[in-house]
């Protein structure tokens, strides 16, 4: 009843990644919806300032402010809803695998170059000769 070894369900790495990705997407969409609500309230506020409070009443500047803000909102929505589908976790995984493969290929090329320039058989012969010289010097 009060034991320390409770049966805690463990998540494997893939399930953990899926849950992290889902939480990240939920947070992105929540921020997008919040941005939309703030955009609507802010737009009404800008119209009220211009028309009711007569701030800059000779020119309808709120149209430009709302248009600019709408443009920023469209960019935000495009980033969350469209771009993420193309550059989501699968894309990140493919890019990571491609870069790792590229690095492994480069390391293999460098190792081959080193083995060509400095063959192990020559190094071993030099080490043996040095160790023999050191042994003879000790005698």
Question: Would you tell me the structural class of the helices and strands?
Answer: mainly alpha
Number of helices: 4
The rounded distance between the terminal residues' Cα atoms is 74 Å
User: What's the story with the biggest beta sheet?
Assistant: none
Order of helices and strands: HHHH
Integer count of domains: 2
Over all CA atoms, what is the radius of gyration?
33 Å
Strand content is: under 5%
Task: Give a written overview of the molecule.
By secondary structure, the protein is an all-alpha fold. The protein folds into 2 domains: 14-87; 89-139. Helix content is 81%, strand content 0%. It has 4 helices and no strands. The protein has helices at residues 13-51, 62-86, 89-117, 120-138. The chain is elongated, with a radius of gyration of 33 Å. The mean pLDDT is 81.
Observed structural traits:
139 residues, mainly alpha, single chain, 2 domains
At a glance:
The protein is mainly alpha-helical and 139 residues long. 81% of the residues lie in helices and 0% in strands.
């Amino acid at each position: 009843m009060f034991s320390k070894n409770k049966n805690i369900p463990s998540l494997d790495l893939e399930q953990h990644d899926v849950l992290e990705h889902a939480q990240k997407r939920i947070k992105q969409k929540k921020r997008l919806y919040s941005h939309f609500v703030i955009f609507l309230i802010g737009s009404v506020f800008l119209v009220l300032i211009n028309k009711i409070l007569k701030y800059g009443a000779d020119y309808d500047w709120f149209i430009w402010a709302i248009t600019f803000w709408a443009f920023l909102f469209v960019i935000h929505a495009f980033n969350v809803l469209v771009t993420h589908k193309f550059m989501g976790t699968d894309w990140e995984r493919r890019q990571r695998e491609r870069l790792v493969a590229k690095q492994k290929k480069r390391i293999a090329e460098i190792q081959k170059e080193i083995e060509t320039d400095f063959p192990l058989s020559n190094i071993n012969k030099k080490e043996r000769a040095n160790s023999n010289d050191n042994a003879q010097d000790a005698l």
